[in-house]
Design a protein that fits this description.
The protein has about 240 residues and is of the alpha+beta class. The chain has 7 helices and 8 strands. Strands 1, 2, 3, 4, 5, 6, 7 and 8 form an 8-stranded mixed sheet that branches.
Amino acid sequence: MYNEDDLLPISALQHWLFCSRQCGLIHLEQVWSENKLTAQGRQLHDRAHEPSPESRGDTRIARALRLCSYALGLAGQADIVELDRPGPTCPPNQQAPAPGLPGLWTFHPVEYKRGRPKQIDCDRVQLCAQAMCLEEMLHVSIPEGSLFYGEPRRREAVVFDDRLRDITRRAADAVHSMFRSGVTPQAAHAPKCKSCSLIDLCMPKRKVRVASAQRYLNLQLDDALKFERTNEEGNEYI
């Protein structure tokens, strides 16, 4: 279990699975640059987070709900959580009280994304982490949620199965490991770099030669010994 000071942003998992260097630049080095695509995504989230109570029939809508998990070491917020009255066949472990509301409810997180659905699991993992936070906070089981994409303007159902939950846990462990090391991963150039707002800061095409710490130390010791020998001989060291 992590403590309060260890909690990392849920969004870091999405960044890590999309590009580990992007994750390090944003969350470890605290650098950011916006482009047209990130501005569109921010506007979409801002609309989803507008604090207004809302009901659609028997469904209650909670916006910008604060989340945390001490098991995963994560904190953040859900764009939307839909609360519904459980049906007659709903398992008891999927029902829980909701603060400020009478009776029992089921919970369905919804994450808003610009663009189109991705082949990789980065968005699904971010949503799964939100569900796992809710499960820990409310002592309830949440079987699925939804991703809403801005271009097709439709939802994609996401089932929180064992495979996705395992990827989510491993991604959280990897991000915590990066923070403990304090090292931002190296760049790996890929077609997706063209649309990244951090491309000028990341410089993914630049080849970086990283010497080992032992080699660096050996060079420094060698230089120091040469300087010492030169002083003893009274010669100029070049």
